[in-house]
Design goal:
Layout: H1 3-6, E1 16-20, H2 31-39, E2 42-45, H3 51-54, E3 62-65, H4 77-89, E4 94-98, H5 108-117, E5 122-125, H6 130-137, E6 151-155, H7 169-175, E7 178-182, H8 188-197, E8 205-210, E9 218-223, H9 227-234, E10 240-244, H10 251-254
Parallel strand pairs: 1-4, 1-5, 2-3, 2-4, 6-7
Antiparallel strand pairs: 7-10, 8-9, 8-10
Helix pairs in contact: 7-8
This protein binds S-adenosyl-L-homocysteine.
Length: about 260
């Protein structure tokens, strides 16, 4: 074993580590993430965290599910945060495991602020976000020198579950050649309308990448104009990343996943 593997940080009792599990494929977990999972005594995890990743934990680990289950409402963010603080005060090694990257549309910032306010020592372990790694598994690079020098990541939901009013759709439509959207399926009709209204063309390429990096990954490539009908007939369901822009066309050449063994 290399020295680096032996020198990974020790999980102190009473600390909370906020860890990104990546988009699904367990191979996309970081070494820091794996080191955290192996030492954790309590894991508070979200719905989008892969079971195989949880399987890396010790046999004695206590698992707490903090996501939506069977149509029941998800636990309140405040309750999750309180739990983290409470477990840390019980002097446990507490791992908060989140899908993708904890600081990308994952409320990791809110949780870290609460830990800071309660003087709980914490560590942040970034993960591969679905809007980057998930697209790579679909053969779609989020940047390419010939296509875009900027990229916008946005969420299709605000805290109230509606399309965020703070998004300046005109600026995004005009200024961002590639737009990567999280949680955008539910309000797709509305979002599509805003992009068309502010100057994106009917023929603008769009891809929906569903359950990216998992064995159930599905990709629908369409255009802004056709996307509503194509989406309906495809039966594609969330979780999905929606990407708008010419980067989508690169998938014709860069789709690699179907050509390799997993
Ligand atoms: N922190 C996460 C995002 C959490 S928000 C990250 O960095 O990836 C949840 C949204 O992320 C989902 O609604 C979906 O839009 C997207 N998402 C997460 N995992 C995904 C996956 N494997 N495939 C497609 N979309 C995914």
């Amino acid at each position: 074993m290399s020295d680096f593997m032996k020198q990974l940080p020790v999980f102190e009792p009473g600390h909370v580590w906020l860890v990104g599990a990546g988009p699904g494929d367990p191979g996309l977990l970081t070494l820091h993430g794996m080191n955290a999972i192996k030492q954790a005594e309590i894991i508070v995890y979200d719905a989008l965290v892969n079971d195989e990743i949880l399987g890396l934990a010790s046999e004695s680990v206590e698992l707490h599910f903090a996501g939506k289950r069977g149509g029941k409402p998800s636990p309140k963010q405040k309750d999750i945060t309180l739990k983290l603080v409470e477990f840390a005060r019980q002097n446990k090694r507490v791992l908060r495991l989140k899908g993708g990257d904890p600081f990308v549309f994952g409320r990791g910032g809110e949780e870290a602020l609460a830990l800071s306010e309660n003087n709980i020592p914490f560590r942040i372990i970034p993960g591969i976000s679905a809007g980057i790694g998930g697209l790579a598994y679909a053969g779609i690079p989020v940047t390419h020198r010939d296509i875009n020098h900027s990229v916008t990541f946005l969420t299709g939901h605000d805290a109230n579950g509606v399309v965020p009013s703070a998004v300046k759709w005109k600026c995004v439509s005009n200024g961002s050649p590639v737009i990567v959207m999280y949680m955008a399926m539910k309000h797709w009709s509305n979002i599509r309308g805003k992009l068309l209204e502010h100057g994106r063309g009917e023929d603008e390429p769009v891809a929906f990448v569903c359950e990216a990096t998992t064995p159930n990954q599905r990709v629908l490539v369409t255009t802004l104009g056709e996307s509503l009908t194509d989406l309906e007939s495809s039966g594609i369901e969330p979780p999905a990343i929606v990407v708008v822009g010419k980067a989508v066309n690169l998938r014709n050449q860069l789709e690699w996943l179907s050509k390799v063994s997993r």
